[in-house]
Amino acid sequence: MTKRFAIIIVVLLGIYALINVFSNDDETTSSSDTMNSSMSTDDMMNDMNDDMDDDMSSDMSDDMSESMMDDMADVQMSKDQETRKLLAELRTIPVSEFATNKMKYERLLEMHPGNDMFTRKVDFYSDKLADQQAGY
Predict the structure, then answer these.
(1) How many Å apart are CA 4 and CA 125, to the nearest integer?
(2) Cβ atoms 52, 21 nearer than 8 A
(3) Within a 13 Å sphere around the CA of 31, how many CA atoms are in the beta-carbon half?
(4) Which H, E and C letters describe 11-42, residue by residue?
(5) What is the mean pLDDT of each run of 10 residues along the chain (136 residues)?
């Protein structure tokens, strides 16, 4: 039970850390896309793990069933993996591929609602796509 409890704490702190990592504007430039993050995916995940280690607490309730904790851990791992994959793909996509960038940032925004950086990037690519379709 202690191991699962620790996993749940790490998962919840991972969500918190992801939101904080992705909302930091100081780290948003890339060689292929000025709107993509300059940090590597591994760097982001390492920073997130460091934050989780620093912030770990034991405020979780013991009332949660083991299956609920397992489900939460599985969902978070899947979300983290998809986030990593999308961020890695975005680094390889040129800025000029507005529709592809917009689609991938929209998916990230679905997974991380309210994330300012993803919201701005969706808006940026939406504007660029609209300009392109208008012939500008």
Answers:
(1) 41
(2) no
(3) 3
(4) HHHHHHHHHHHHCCHHHCCCCCCCCCCCCCHH
(5) 69 68 46 47 56 46 66 80 93 95 96 93 96 89
The number of folded domains in the chain is 1
Domain span at 75: 2-134
pLDDT at 38: 47
How far apart CA 109 and CA 53 sit, in angstroms, is: 26
Q: Are 111 and 78 in contact, with CB atoms under 8 Å apart?
A: no
Q: What does the block give as tokens for 17?
A: 């850390």
| CA nearest neighbour of 18 among 113, 91, 89 | 113
Q: Phi-psi region for residue 61, left (φ > 0), alpha (ψ -120 to 50) or beta?
A: beta
Give the whole-angstrom CA distance, residue 61 versus residue 9.
11
Q: Let me know: does 48 contact 95? Beta carbons within 8 Å.
A: no
Per-residue pLDDT, 28: 40
| Token pair belonging to 45 | 């995940």
Q: What angle separates helix 41-55 from helix 66-92, to the nearest 10 degrees?
A: 150
The torsion of the CA quartet 118, 32, 85, 97, rounded to 10 degrees, works out to: 70
